[in-house]
# Entry
Amino acid sequence: MKRILIVGAGEVGYHLAERLSAEGHQVVIIETNTQKIKRLEKLNILAVKGSGASAKTLEEAGIREADLFIAVTNSDEINLISCLLAREYGVPRKIARVKSEEYLSPESPLNEEKLGLDLIVNPVRALAEEIVRLSRFSQLSDWEEFGGGQILLIGYQVRPKTALAGVKISDLMELRKLYAFLIVAIVRKGKTIIPRGDTILRPQDRVFLILKKKDLKAIEHLLGIKLAPPKKVFVIGGGKVGKLVAEQLEKEVEEVVVVETDLERCELLSESLSRALVLNVDGLEAQELIKEGLDRADLVISVTNSDTVNILSALLAKHYGAQRVIIRVDHPDFIPLLNPLGIDKTLSSRLVTSDQILRFVKSSRIFSVTSFLETMVEVEEIEVPPKRTFEEGVKIRELDLPEDTIVGALYRNGEVLIPSGETVIKSGDLLVIIGLRKGLSKVEKIFEL
Amino acid sequence: MRIRPLIAEKCVLEEIKVSDKWQVLKDLSLFLAEETGLKPEKIEAALVEREKMGSTAMGEGVALPHARLPLLSRIYIGAARILKGIDFEAPDGQPVKIIFTVLAPERETSAYLRCLSNLARMLREKAFREAILSARDKKEILEVIVHFDREF
# Structure
């Protein structure tokens, strides 16, 4: 258990507090706004009213005992000052959210290192990076790598009349000698299920598959999917996120079209982009966009500053035939509505930011952690500790893991295995465990993290 | 659905004489071509492409080569034996003696997957493998398949 001090109870702070306290850490939040403090009550988290830039408030919140300091208010200045204060109080690890680009480059007079921070998270960049990462594989909703890139966890939406529609999990298990992959989670109508042998996959299920990267081609064959990168991508909204995304994608994708309503911004985009086509059109002018081939797009990325425009432009694009859409939505309450409407992937800069922070915070035995934003699925890499029971080896079946968790992969001496209940695990093995938060906390206890 | 109606009878072979696994795929393609009306080179190319992604040998002396093919009207299954056994780069290193081949239309949906999984389930049974190997002729091989065939 760690003592964690969070400054700012906005979306990011709230989400972090919820997750970190669910994992058993002692969390204290500093917040100026009484209403936001009220919202914390149901999480059972101690809140201190005041500013993170005030030493008195920090002391009241117990800064002297804190192991970790996270500053995520809406103000860069407050975040940076409070982190500087935390440094003076000797807090070992400090993380700040900083929106301004000025502190990000190694050449800038004040950067991560000079400020003594362990991590600066820039929400715009974090979001753009995540979008670019997810853009690379046209038919997938998710793509995560583990075990130094040897293991993949991919998200895939089952469509009617495709290979997985109507298939029983136990049928897939019969194929494990030919296709060593596991379906580790299913998101069905907004609910996350950890499947069992008798679970039957249905159209519209979003399934999470874990597999060895080297088997990817064979599995593409079996499922009849092609993971080729997209050829034609529309980026709707040429703001900061859109610009970063377009800059990266034009290096990798044949055709990139950026759609922006503001004429001046278009001129700036044309100058800084080398290959992408910049259109001065509203993202909702479907007919104009179809002239440029919106209907034939492999991927449409909607990242304007307006949730409504992003949602509607994505729905229009899908309606006219675009293969896949990724959108930015800042209002968290909208997120669960969107997948059932046919929006393949929804990202919010706040959630991407808190995810980046969570990955950083996890204790040393957990090497990597990922959560899939609109779902409750989380993934952890856990090293089996050098305890006597594990030194001798234990069958996964005998570990008595909670029902809502599953061991998706195991690596030992550089070898990767997609395990079954009969697989024996030993100290030093690295496990990739997928599950729901409650279950994962129990797993952490089994391994005494 | 069951396995038996999908069996291409011209492709049930008591014994094929071949030197390596690529030769097996070539030979089987000739028989499958006769039944399906597709060009043998097309079938072979598809089976080879899949085999190169990873061996279709499953251990216990069994292999299950399979591929999707455009222009195919339905799923076709072939069965063949190599009684002396042949190296198929199996995960357990054992020589392969029983080979079931599955060809499916390009757009075949879950039937392909369920068909493969059902064959894999049958082949996992020792009794099935032994019965296939001790069958005296093609007729008996088909009888064994019918005996172990289950609705899927």
Summary: The longest strand of chain A covers residues 181-188. Confidence is low (pLDDT under 50) at residues 363-367 of chain A.
